[in-house]
Amino acid sequence: MPVTAYDLTGRAAFVTGAASGIGRASALLLGEAGATVHCADRDTEGLHETAALIKDGGGTAHTHDLDVTDRARLRQAITSCERLDILAAIAGIMHSSPVLETRDEDLDRVLDVNFKGVLHACQEAARLMIAQGCGGSIVTMASGAVDTGARGLLCYGAAKAAVVQLTKTLATEVGRHGIRVNAVAPGWIRTPMTDRRDSEAQAHTEALMTRMSPLGKVGTPEDIAHAVLHLASDASAFTTGQIVRPNGGVAMPW
């Protein structure tokens, strides 16, 4: 496959969660590949920093200051795009609590962001792609948590499992329009969301994750951004309804 398969010149991408972490790394890489990148996040300062980085690298970026739980604002932002070829639905939050201590409001908050925010972005993007008649690629963000149980991650894991089911179901429904839908399920990635705020706790967690990985390391946002680029590009033209797992080998499902 020629390297040009990763060339996104002339295409447009909408990236949620673009202000930091995996979202920022993905937005930057999509921009480097030639796409016009619509960056969306509720973190206004980080959002504009990401857009500035894309522009500094010679790319084109637009900003949409929004919370993905605001469905009307999300719809307005996506439909305002002159064209849309790629959606990277990456925005998410983390919550940890034992099952017996999990409150309804905890579950509702995580589902609102990590599942409904993805669902609504996918709905609006797919509608626009179908109307354009040019196909497209939708990339959702799952997690290694969908492949194994982990203490305290009921809300997060359940929401990400729902994203996996959304990904597979949507892929079966929009494939006839030339739209591919795939998910990325990262392992432990060093991002602001996984920051323990305490250096000792952070070091302990990363040491544990390093030992669990056959590669002997934790991941970076750039590791995941490359998976997003692959799924967004023509290099994965025959791939849909799949879960790509850049997780350092910590989970190897059949």
From TrEMBL:
What PROSITE patterns has UniProt attached to this entry?
Answer: ADH_SHORT (PS00061)
Q: Does the keyword Membrane apply?
A: no
In the record, what terms sit under GO molecular function?
3-oxoacyl-[acyl-carrier-protein] reductase (NADPH) activity
Q: What class of enzyme is it?
A: oxidoreductase
Q: What is its EC number?
A: 1.1.1.100
Keyword Oxidoreductase among UniProt keywords = yes
Its domain of life? Bacteria
| Keywords attached to this entry | Oxidoreductase
InterPro entries found in the cross-reference section: NAD(P)-bd_dom_sf, Sc_DH/Rdtase_CS, SDR_fam
Which Pfam family, just one, is annotated for this protein? adh_short_C2
Query: What's the family?
Result: Belongs to the short-chain dehydrogenases/reductases (SDR) family.
Q: Mind telling me what this protein is named?
A: 3-oxoacyl-[acyl-carrier-protein] reductase FabG
What phylogenetic lineage does the species belong to?
Bacteria, Bacillati, Actinomycetota, Actinomycetes, Kitasatosporales
| Gene behind this protein | fabG_7
